[in-house]
Amino acid sequence: MTPIQLSPKLFACSQSTELAEKIAKEFGIPLGKVNTTHFSDGEFQPAFEESVRGRRVFLIGSTFPTADNLMEMLLMIDAAKRASARHITAVMPYFGWARQDRKDKPRVAIGAKLVAKLLEAAGATRIMTMDLHADQIQGFFEKPVDHLFASTIFMPYIESLKLDNLTIASPDMGGSKRAYAYSKYLESDVVICYKQRKKANIIDHMELIGEVEGKNVILVDDMIDTGGTLARAANLMIERGAISVRAICTHPILSGDAYEKIQNSKLTELIVSDTIPLKRQVSKIKVVSCAPLFADVMHKVQDNTSISGQFLM
């Protein structure tokens, strides 16, 4: 006898409620109800207000700092497991702590590996995320990982700009693979920025590998934190004769005075997704929603159909 296929349920972590509502609307069902009890010392306890027994559950929440965001995801996964959910998919549009993906100096943690183990220990049966800081983080998991690419949502916007003499640029050597993938699809040239840092988030020197004179340049990166690299790269490219410089960054962390740096830079615009909610709006920042992409892939996961058609590159 074939078991009855129950409809899935979607729930939002508090830090990603706005994005989760968009995903739920695209998916075609309302968000499930979660009630979170807060204690005076800062502890909190999320509780599902409806049954999840025997169902596939999608828990939507980006895990950017503070650590409470990761903790909320872990608690919700554990609650779903103890409530007898059949499958538990942690939908993490932004996978936090991913910059700690290796030991780059003695006596440091590999934070991304630790987070992977915590998610699995809590009871996640599947992970869904977008533009990991390093592709190999998928190997930290023993469970299936759906690693989506933001190029799927950004490429139509780039094409709509109809830019002549387009050049794709990477703000550092580590992002060259991503830049080459974009340039291959768009049949454009590539420029790489070579930078040296004094310490984290502080650049000592930057140089360009390639020509930008007379070009419309688009910098591509997986995240923007302080904005220092992109602002400096844009200013340098304009000095070297670029017609315009835009930047595409999937995850808008935008900490410190990043908003001011972007607004005061030579960037024409910064295009980001809504994996992390903006703290405020500025005229140079444009948001392209990732909700349709996640909703479509979640449908395919529920229906056990291939998601490979969602990958432009």
Automatic annotation (TrEMBL):
Any GO CC annotation of this UniProt entry: cytoplasm
A GO molecular function held by the record: magnesium ion binding
Transferase listed as a keyword: yes
Keyword Transferase: yes
Matching CDD domains: PRTases_typeI
Matches recorded under SMART domains: Pribosyltran_N
EC number(s) reported in the record: 2.7.6.1
UniProt cross-references to InterPro entries, sorted A to Z: PRib_PP_synth_CS, Pribosyltran_N, PRTase-like, PRTase_dom, Rib-P_diPkinase
Gene Ontology terms describing biological process: 5-phosphoribose 1-diphosphate biosynthetic process; purine nucleotide biosynthetic process; ribonucleoside monophosphate biosynthetic process
Catalytic activity of the protein: D-ribose 5-phosphate + ATP = 5-phospho-alpha-D-ribose 1-diphosphate + AMP + H(+)
Gene3D superfamilies in the record: 3.40.50.2020
Enzyme class, broadest EC rank: transferase
Keywords: ATP-binding, Cytoplasm, Kinase, Magnesium, Metal-binding, Nucleotide biosynthesis, Nucleotide-binding, Transferase
Name this polypeptide is given: ribose-phosphate diphosphokinase
Organism listed in the record: Tenacibaculum adriaticum
